[in-house]
Amino acid sequence: MNKTVRKLVVCALVAATVASPAAAQAAPEEPTDIESVQAVAADTQQAIAPAAGEAAEDALSAESTEGPTQVEVLADDEEDLPVAGDDEPTGPGDDSDEDVAGPDYTGWIDEDGVPCTVADAAGWVDEGVAARSKFFYDSATNAWYWTEADGSVSRNHDAFVPLDNSVAGTAWETATDEWRSANGKWVRLGADGAMVKGVSTIGDDQWYFDEVTGAMQYGFRLVTDGGGARWVFYDYITGKMARGEKVIDGSHGDESGWMYFDPETGGATYGWFELPDGNGGTKWVYYDEVTGRMRYGSIMVDGKPCFLDLVTGARQGRDAMVSRLLATCASQNGITDGYRYQNAAIDAGSTFNYMGPCTAYVWWCFNEAGLKYQFMDGAATTYPHDVRDWYTARGAFREKGSYTPQPGDIWITDNPGGRPFAGASATHAGIVDHVSSDGVYIYCWEHVNGYVHLVTERYDHGTLVGYACPFYNS
């Protein structure tokens, strides 16, 4: 007899026994076919019906004196008879214990708490405990991930997270903004939730994340790749790699100043570079060959003095520099204290000239005008023969009568009786302000006869020997 038939028989017998002990005693032997089962069921129902009232009274009486009657029935001699409400699967699709993450499970889970792959994951559990506000590592993908306070896996955005798990979890969730700022870092989480490391590019912008910690990097970084070794800069606020003009404010210990970063590679620019001047034209600026910062004022480039605007950094021509120089010369008109010039030159490395402060005044005017390197490449002297000899050695001295002086040239005379020592080549110096239209008169700023003033000299002055010609970006 099959299992279904046998269970029907047993159920019928149980019902009869519970309702009437007498009926149970009269139960027939186990039938062997379905027709017999049906007959037994009919006989049993007839036996039960007349005794229903008596059974109810007996049951109430027994309950008050003996307690409830329990009946244990075995189906098929080995299997427990299923009872409604037992935690047993009832059909395809029902979750069994093997389908739900257990207390020892570590890995990805979906929205129903069922183990899954990273592609379908809604969260992560560590030994059955949901990860919240913490990092976790998945060896299968060899990547780190971050879960938010609600247990969801963070994906496809930048997140401010703890430096590591020692300050994660509840400590992170309940911390003050100040504490978080000191103990946190920005990271980038990809579309799959994996923490980004190394270079990350979105559109035309680039960032860099630490290869170990995944923390967003800021400031300067030396890059060595197929594009060659170069310094790049990641903004201290956004982390974005700089391109084009960028001012470094020095707030993080860097040298402050303007820099220019290549629009393609982000590499810092060095040396001369042409930029728009903001007025529809262009300007030439110079970025320091070591620091990459824009230079200003008087500098030496490739052995030549140059002057760059003190505000814009634009390279200036002769007229602009000479104008600055002559304005400085004129500012001293009438000054009688020649020691102020000598003392300044001595402080810069020269020695005292007992013959007078004329050359010290010339040196002072160049330096005060910001044209330090236009005068003898920055050397300091109080002696006129030093000036003549220096420019002669460099082919920048013009003999009297062979040259029409220009504003900004240095007038040199030699009075043998006034030489500081035998063999000296000059005894006096001044700065040419302008020349008369006929070329006869030369007007020079000089410290002579005890004070500074504009002196009118003739082109054929008896002691005039020639002119030193400073380099003015010609």
Report on the structure:
By secondary structure, this protein is of the alpha+beta class. The chain folds into three domains: 101-217, left handed beta-beta-3-solenoid, CATH 2.10.270.10; 222-295, left handed beta-beta-3-solenoid (Ribbon); 318-468, endopeptidase fold (from Nostoc punctiforme), CATH 3.90.1720. Helix content is 22%, strand content 27%. The protein has helices at residues 3-19, 21-25, 34-48, 52-65, 170-173, 177-183, 318-331, 339-347, 358-368, 384-393; strands spanning 74-75, 79-80, 107-109, 123-126, 129-130, 134-138, 143-147, 157-162, 184-189, 198-202, 205-209, 219-225, 228-234, 244-248, 257-261, 271-276, 282-287, 297-301, 304-308, 397-399, 410-413, 428-435, 441-448, 451-458, 464-468. The strands form ten sheets. The chain has a six-stranded antiparallel beta sheet, covered by helices on one side. It has a three-stranded antiparallel beta sheet with strand order 3-4-5, with no helix packed on it. A two-stranded antiparallel ribbon has the order 1-2. α7 packs across α9 and α8 (339-347) packs across α9 (358-368). Mean pLDDT is 84; it is low at 1-42 and 44-98.
